[in-house]
Design brief:
The protein is α/β, with parallel strands linked by helices. The protein has helices at 54-62, 70-76, 81-98, 102-105, 125-134, 150-160, 176-188, 241-244, 247-259, 273-276, 279-282, and strands spanning 2-18, 21-35, 38-44, 118-120, 141-144, 166-169, 191-195, 215-217, 236-239, 263-266, 288-289, 307-308, 311-312. α5 runs parallel beside α6.
Length: 321
C-alpha cells in the first residue's frame, strides 16, 4: 500500500464569511491510498482554528507508514483533518477491494436521502435578507452570525424567509451577555437551534444559564473524549468528520452521544462532494443535517453528489465508498 496527499482548490459561487473571516475558494487536501490495482481516496479541510494548515496536514499524512489499517490509524494520528482524509480513503479502498458498499462494511442500513440546511454567509442585514428570500424554498436555512448587527440580521432573514425553518451559528462569536439578550428573540423568530454561541473553553456559563432553545456544541465537540465536558451545557452535538478524524470515529461518536441523550447534528467544512459522501451515513436519522458544502461551490468533483427535492442522496460508488 502507498499513501499520498495533494492540495486542491475549488472556486466558491460567492465569498463565504463567518465570524472568523472570509474565503473565495475551498482549499482541501486529498489523500489517496493505493493497493495493487485499487485506489481509495478521501478529502479533508485543514482548519486554522484547530491549529491545522495545508502543510501540517500533508506532513502528517506523509509521516504515516505505508502499511496501515483503519484501526492502527486511530492511534497513529490525533483527531483532525489529516486522519479524516486517510480514514475515509481507507474506507473507500476497503469497499472497492471487497466489491461492497461502505454501509455494508459498517453494518449499517443502506442510507436514504437526507434534507440538508443551506448556509447563508455572514453579511450586512439587507444582503442576508436578499439571500434568505432567494433561498426561502429550501427545507432549512443556517444563518451565520457573530457580529454587532446580529439582531438586525435575524429580523431581516426572517422577513426574507418568513416560513422557512432556521438555525443559527455564532461560531464562538458571542459573550454570555449577548447570548442571554438574543435568546428570547431567537425563540420569538422561530429559530430551532443555536450553534456554539460561546467560545470553546469559555462555555461553562452555559450550564448556569437558561437555555430556551437547544444549544449545539461545534467547536466544543470533536470526538468521544469531548463528551464529558459537554454535560449540562449542550443539548446537541455537531459531528464533523474533519473534527472526529474520519468516518470511523464519527460513527462511534454518534452512538456514544445518542446513548448520553444528545441530539445529533452532522455538519461539514466547505468542501467538495468527496468530503460530504462519508458523512451521509452518519446523517441518517440525525435531527439536523448541514452537508451543503458542494452547494456553495461553482466547481465540484465528478461524479458529484446529487441534491434534489428529496434531499442529499448517498454517493455513487464511482465517487466514494
Amino acid at each position: 500500500m502507498t499513501i499520498s496527499a495533494k492540495t486542491e482548490s475549488f472556486l466558491l459561487r460567492e465569498t463565504f464569511t463567518i465570524s472568523r473571516g472570509s474565503r473565495d475558494r475551498a482549499e482541501v487536501v486529498t489523500a489517496e491510498v493505493q493497493q495493487q490495482s485499487q485506489r481509495g481516496w478521501g478529502e479533508c479541510v485543514p482548519y486554522a482554528r484547530y491549529g491545522e494548515s495545508i502543510d501540517s496536514v500533508i506532513d502528517q499524512i506523509g509521516d504515516l507508514p505505508d502499511e496501515i489499517s483503519r484501526t492502527k490509524l486511530q492511534n497513529a494520528l490525533p483527531p483532525g483533518a489529516a486522519r479524516n482524509a486517510v480514514d475515509c480513503a481507507l474506507w473507500d479502498l476497503e469497499a472497492k477491494s471487497a466489491g461492497r458498499r461502505f454501509w455494508d462494511l459498517a453494518s449499517e442500513p443502506a442510507p436514504r436521502p437526507v434534507q440538508t440546511a443551506f448556509t447563508l454567509s455572514l453579511a450586512a442585514p439587507d444582503e442576508m435578507r436578499s439571500a434568505a428570500a432567494k433561498n426561502a424554498g429550501r427545507p432549512l436555512l443556517k444563518i451565520k452570525l457573530g457580529g454587532e448587527a446580529d439582531m438586525a440580521r435575524l429580523e431581516e432573514v426572517r422577513e426574507g424567509a418568513p416560513d422557512t425553518p432556521i438555525i443559527v451559528d455564532a461560531n464562538e462569536g458571542w459573550t454570555a451577555e449577548v447570548y442571554s439578550e438574543l435568546a428570547p428573540h431567537l425563540v420569538r423568530l422561530g429559530v430551532l437551534l443555536v450553534e456554539q454561541p460561546l467560545p470553546a473553553g469559555q462555555d461553562d456559563l452555559l450550564a448556569e444559564m437558561e437555555r430556551p432553545l437547544p444549544v449545539c456544541a461545534d467547536e466544543s465537540c470533536h470526538d468521544r473524549a469531548s463528551l464529558p465536558g459537554l454535560s449540562g451545557k449542550y443539548d446537541v452535538v455537531n459531528i464533523k468528520l474533519d473534527k472526529t478524524g474520519g468516518l470511523t470515529e464519527a460513527l462511534a461518536l454518534r452512538d456514544a452521544a445518542r446513548a448520553e441523550g444528545y441530539k445529533i447534528m452532522v455538519g461539514c467544512m466547505v468542501g467538495t462532494s468527496l468530503a460530504m459522501a462519508p458523512a451521509v451515513l452518519v446523517a441518517q436519522d440525525a435531527e439536523f443535517v448541514d452537508l451543503d458544502g458542494p452547494l456553495l461551490l461553482s466547481e465540484d468533483r465528478s461524479p458529484a453528489l446529487t441534491y434534489d427535492e428529496s434531499g442529499l442522496h448517498p454517493p455513487d460508488a464511482r465517487l466514494w465508498g
